[in-house]
Amino acid sequence: VFPWLMDHLPGSHQKIFYCQEFLRSFARKEVRSHQERGSPDEPQDFIDFYLAQIDKSKADPHSTFDEDNLVQTIFELFLAGTETTTTTMRWAVLNMVDTHTRTRVQKELDTVLGPSRLICYEDRKNLPYTNAVIHEIQRRSSIIAVGVPRECVKDTMLQGFPVEKGTIILPNLTSALLDPEQWETPRQFNPNHFLDQDGNFVKKEAFLPFSAGHRVCLGEQLARTELFIFFTNLLRAFTFRLPEGVKEISTEFVLGGTLQPHPYKICQVLIHSSNLCPRL
Ligand code: HEM
To answer: What residues bind heme, as annotated (predicted)?
Structure first.
């Protein structure tokens, strides 16, 4: 009823407000420095394109392109793009403690890429096992269990069920990612879910960590590229082990903004320094 009241009440939400303001003020500074630089002949990044669009739509009184919306969009891209990829990488490292899977990935990377060549996203086509492992990490961790709520825009029939206009829909992504009719061992980490009998990578329709349709994750391609590049570079240079004394780890999630792994300490042991990506 009085959202502004929260600004004045003490509590842990104050830390969230502080972090939000930190990120927004960073975005504002970036926008300012782009404005000071002036509009380049060729827009170089998202901010350049957005500022050009603000300029173009100045005469339109209904335009939503303005500086506040630009700052908010940058904020949302950071929010949607960091928590998700980091959480997936944390699951990746936890799963790579398993010696069998990790060794197979490392052997494939060694055989196909050799010791020191830079890895690019195209390489995934020659790395079916590694690609399958990355997909299985995303499937099994199912970090966004329920997608963003959407509203049905017209009366619809869905698999025999009537859905009235105005109904709020919450897509249950986990129900597809762990569907026992779609996956051989739905609750078990198993890269074979994405491999045929000859070891070729196979796409699966029920693989929906980024959701689907018009409002599918905007950053899907970026996220897929990041996950592949980060994962392969890490596995080429390091091996992952549990610290001494730790025998077992839980693969159950901790409920947060995303489904996260338990906060374990993992030992990252350098295999070969020549495999270190110069940019890592
Ligand atoms: C592993 C990484 C990621 C996962 C699993 C993921 C997953 C999702 C999911 C499930 C949605 C909801 C889609 C829907 O409402 O149907 C979504 C939306 C979105 N994601 Fe991602 N995401 C990831 C990375 C990223 C990255 C890297 C960015 C951008 C830098 C990004 C930007 C967005 C945006 C802007 C939306 C809202 C799209 C809209 O409402 O039209 N995401 N994401």
So the answer is: 217
